Amino acid sequence: MKTPVHISKLHGKLHKIKAISTNTRTNNFCFKMSNSFNKKIICTKCYSWAILDRGIYPALEPALQRNSDLFSSRLLEDHEIPNIKDKVFRFNAHGELINLNHLKNYISITNKNPNCSFALWTKRKDLIKFYFNDNDKPNNLIIIYSNPIISTIKKEPPKYFDKTFNNVLEEEHKDKQNCTGQKCINCLLCYSHNNIHQIVEKVKRY
């Protein structure tokens, strides 16, 4: 039986990596953050919002919305959980964790595919802490705290997180920018357990 989960093939720096994502524009957390009056919030420069707003890929937003509805409304049944054959995989190339159901469904996918390394980007420390206070974290899941404040580098990941992802201006912290000008598939710092816990990228312009 075909899974109802939409899996995206990514482009640009994420070429050759696939992802499961949701609709940024209908996520209450994303809406609040992207409309912040504080322009130091990276969400005010959201690449996902810009891409969806421009309608560059007309079929993308409906597919992401189906994922939003599915992941947030209930837990997936076993036959609905996709089999992932890739070595690395991304959660949240678009969007953010919606609720606890959403996170639990990601965990189910991770557990069903132990030979794949999953990386989850999120700012939702509340959901991560609430869930993992009472549940084991899969060894093949890397959780990356997406630091919302531009021009700051968060050195220590929050509890249950493995790494921090930080955005700086092009001229800032050039010696620390380790996620600039390369393809993710050729790097994989975010997709593997290693001694690099701070990822730093210059802010993109859209």
Describe the model.
The chain is an alpha/beta fold and 206 residues long. It has one domain (8-202). It contains 5 helices and 7 strands; from the N terminus they run E-E-H-H-H-E-H-E-H-E-E-E. Helix 3 packs across helix 4.
Q: How would you summarize the topology of this molecule?
A:
Layout: E1 8-9, E2 18-20, H1 28-34, H2 47-54, H3 60-73, E3 88-91, H4 100-112, E4 117-122, H5 125-132, E5 141-146, E6 163-168, E7 198-202
Parallel strand pairs: 2-3, 3-4, 4-5, 5-6, 6-7
Antiparallel strand pairs: 1-2
Largest sheet, if any? 7 strands, mixed
Compute the average pLDDT: 95
Radius of gyration: 16 Å
What's the end-to-end separation, in Å?
39 Å
Strand/helix succession: EEHHHEHEHEEE
Q: Spans of 5+ residues with little confidence (pLDDT < 50)?
A: none
Primary descriptors:
206 residues; seven-stranded mixed sheet; 5 helices; 24% helix
Concise synopsis of the structure shown:
The chain is of the alpha/beta class. It is 24% helix and 16% strand. Helix 5 (125-132) links the parallel strand 4 (117-122) and strand 5 (141-146).
